[in-house]
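S1.2 Input.
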Amino acid sequence: MAIDEAISLVDVDVCRPEKCPGCDPQEECVVVAVSNRLTAAGSFLYLNYYGGDLDQWEDGITLSNWTNSGEDATSVLCLGDFILVTSNGAGAVYYTDDLGTTLVEHSETEWGTDGPNNSDALDQIFIVTVHDNGAVWGTYDAGRTWTELEDGLATTENLYHVMFARDNPQVIYACGDNNALIKSENGGKNWFALTGPSAGDGLSALWVKTQYHILVGNDDGEVWESSDGGESWSQQDPLPNLPAAPIVEGFVECECDGLFAIVGHTGSTGHRVYRNVDGGASGRWYIPENVATPTYRPKAITCCDINRAIIVGGDGSTNGNVILLA
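S1.3 Output.
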């Protein structure tokens, strides 16, 4: 089935690392997505066992306890059969070890109303979430119990993105409002502030290519790059055909040094999808010819391989919650 409910999808992920090398991405790539709160029905978790194929989404699994104002789902993380869904409310996470068959809700009382905004992990052993007011939390047992890793000393700004360096899991970056950028070099035990590249702007997208090489996007539609671990920055050439008031919403890197970027617009039109097959290099972003301009604001992107990216968003209608680039 297609997702034909009147929702907005807020995040999407591909279930890794258990996927086998060389698998057919259309048949072996499991995709998960979450929606915001639908009145009293709560948020929803959606699964697709066929690489995000537009007609192959399972019926939404209701996250039934997230029914109050301020309890929208914010992110989804999938590792094999394990899924973690976060909320920005007091009912902060659901986790499942069996792809949604059995769901468990966990509410950490110390979070208060500052639930997680985003999460990242390389495996179930250690997962990191970022929150408002510069807070960072971690779980060492797949969401059962949580430990505060950073209590706002590195920054007091709201944090919306976090990512491990895949080549060195001791290095973690997070970013958010008002040019906030923080880093850990010892697996989340200690954090320190970096000078972000774009004073006065919110850092709305983050991609950690290596422990030293990172990309950030901001709410002015700019892409900035650092090759020395965030110590210095260079602004990339402007993305082509940007709309007015653009916001870089997300990056994803696929195989063969290929990246995608999504750009939203504060209005109802003018949203963009970009591709880069040169490792995210400046001046090499382009709009793929076979991609129609999204009719809704894109919120998140993931991919099964360089030729199969899945973009989610929506405007609360039944129209165009998912785009598949195949």
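S1.4 Remarks. The longest strand covers residues 168-176.
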